[in-house]
Amino acid sequence: MRGNSGGSHRYSAEMKRTLRTRHHRVGLSLLLAAALTMVSACGSTDATANPTTTTAVPTTTSVASTTSPPTSVVSTTIVPHVPPRVLLIGDSTLLAVDRYDGFRALRGFDYLYDAESCRTLGIPSCGDPPIPPNAVEAIGAANGSFDYVVIMAGYDEWWTSFPDSFDEVVAASRAKGAHSIIWLTYPEGVPYKLLTGERADEAFIKNNQTLRDKLATGQFPDVLLAKWYPHVRQSSGWITDDGIHLSREGALGVSDYISRWVAHSEGVPCPMPSVLGGPIEAVCSNPDTQPQIADVISLYES
Which of 63, 112, 152, 232 fits 94 for a cystine, CB–CB 3.0-4.6 Å? Predict the structure, then answer.
């Protein structure tokens, strides 16, 4: 994606592709087993008629009674939570995570990060050569399979091509094994303009409506609509003047937001508290139902 000419927060068209893998292992395993068998001998003195039975757990007392009931075997296993594998696909909005090292706020899962300036969804990407692969191509080229695909791209996709591109992105994600596709919504009422000079607001409004319409059909139960806008406030300092690109705070904020969305979908604790030193939710709430993190810089300083 390209910003308006002369903007202080634009990303270079020559910015090389950033592709990283980070591993964050969470969970623990605990295996508890107890086995006890009590064997009673019959009254006969014939050893061959009454063989002695041994157990894996030795006993220290002899039982002569034939009326003692056997003790049942008890086995308790706690199955650990296996961190999901997540593919993060973005354009220059998500590219801020690399620019400002927002990776430290991506927690609770293993991930592959792929963000490039001017990336589109299903149509050819924009920008100067070499033109980056679009989202469909990037998903297809990603190594391995994934539990989640996160989409923060499409800011340079006009509303007329968006519906077909949405279908292609979902199909590509499903082909990679994803059971959930977390799609971040677009801002409305912002000044950002496309390379053609057109104000992108019309496309953002219609693309958000397309997302809602697609999900309403019931054909996309695996698509989770993450309401990045309006979750992030324009006045919070997370967003730059063009209304879409992210500041240092925003880079950490979107990483934290994605991490909470994955934790919420997994039904596990949040990776971090909402405030430094605060409690961590045992089951992470949907971040769209919670206030925007007030001081995300302090939360991830340590």
Answer: 152
